[in-house]
Design a protein that fits this description.
The protein is built from 14 helices and 4 strands. It is mainly alpha-helical.
Length: 334
């Protein structure tokens, strides 16, 4: 057990991994309540909420944000964040369609190229943060601006295309479950295992909880943060691949228009992940993504003004952060 030196005594440092599963339960209860209220409102308005098509559409619309939010949760737990994911989604979408050029024989090459690019960008982010000691907000904002400049200089519109076979990721289903939803569940399951059952996961919670104590306890903190950023970037790549399979071609605005940088942070925070690091769980993040998806569905049903949508989502996010802060205070600021 890692211990933190306190005046006159030693105090054990509580690991967010030990409380992550428990903290996710209230979020899922909130999701259940939101879902029930949404169902009631839509039915009273004369719509149909509990149809297979509607549920499938909601689930598929959750995939893009859900994938990025899983990666964002990982870096947030480590006490960092990543604002470059939105433009990395665009880089992936454009890069995949440009490499594939509609040729089925180039699908594997397109996927591999984008995965390598994503891992490289995550590595750069991590090294800037840990090696140059640049704040994560500034470091990842800087890399996002670099990607934005490159994209806008080289591409002005949709470019290339993905083959019909690759579009199966965005449109096919196994029975009633879309393939993309299965991908999201697989990523969530893998991330859960990594965070809860591996040494890296334990180290990540320790670094996010108190990096100095973790370092004094023998944890290679820099390596942990770098790996977290690589994993986050890879989830953004998966989002880009999913979106280009839906759009059939990539464009520079795909990522920024989706707001995947701030939206992924919001979903993680609504799901109970601490912005300060050291606490959180991907199960809670998945619930947070679904909560936002259900709310969006209600907005669409009632044709709510776009500005009002943004206002309400902002209030929900602020409320979630406030509730988390109150809970932390009641727990004694652990």
């Amino acid at each position: 057990m890692i211990a933190e030196t306190m005046p006159g005594r030693l105090r054990p440092l509580r690991s967010g991994r030990d409380t992550g599963a428990a903290s996710s339960a209230p979020v899922w209860l909130v999701f259940g309540g939101v879902f029930a209220v949404a169902w009631l409102l839509v039915e009273l308005n004369g719509g149909q909420f509990m149809t297979v098509d509607n549920l499938q559409n909601m689930a598929v619309r959750s995939v893009a944000l859900g994938l990025v939010a899983v990666g964002q949760t990982i870096v947030l737990i480590g006490g960092s964040l990543d604002l470059s994911v939105a433009y990395l989604v665009s880089v992936t979408a454009v890069g995949a369609s440009f490499v594939m050029q509609g040729d089925p024989d180039r699908m594997v090459l397109g996927v591999l190229v984008t995965l390598v690019i994503g891992a490289a960008i995550g590595l750069v982010n991590g090294l800037i943060i840990t090696g140059l000691r640049v704040n994560a907000f500034i470091a990842t904002l800087g890399t996002s601006l670099v990607m934005s400049g490159v994209l806008n200089a080289l591409f002005t519109n949709f470019t290339g295309s993905v083959p019909r076979q690759f579009q199966a990721l965005g449109y096919n289903a196994l029975g009633p479950v879309p393939v993309a939803v299965l991908l999201l569940l697989a990523v969530v399951g893998l991330a859960w295992y990594v965070l809860r059952r591996t040494r890296f996961g334990y180290h990540l919670y320790a670094v996010g909880g108190n990096a100095e104590v973790a370092r004094l306890s023998g944890v290679r903190t820099d390596r942990t943060v770098v790996l977290a950023h690589v994993l986050c970037s890879l989830t953004a790549v998966l989002t880009g691949l999913f979106l280009v399979s839906r759009l059939r071609s990539g464009a520079p605005w795909v990522g920024p228009d989706g707001g995947y940088d701030l939206e992924s942070i919001a979903a993680a925070v609504v799901g109970g992940t601490a912005l300060a690091g050291g606490r959180g769980a991907v199960a809670g993040t998945l619930a947070g993504v679904l909560i936002l998806a259900v709310i969006d569905q209600v907005f669409n049903e009632f044709e709510v003004n776009a500005f009002l949508k943004t206002l309400i989502r902002g209030v929900i996010i602020v409320g979630a952060v406030a509730l988390y802060a109150l809970r932390r205070r009641d727990e004694g600021s652990f």
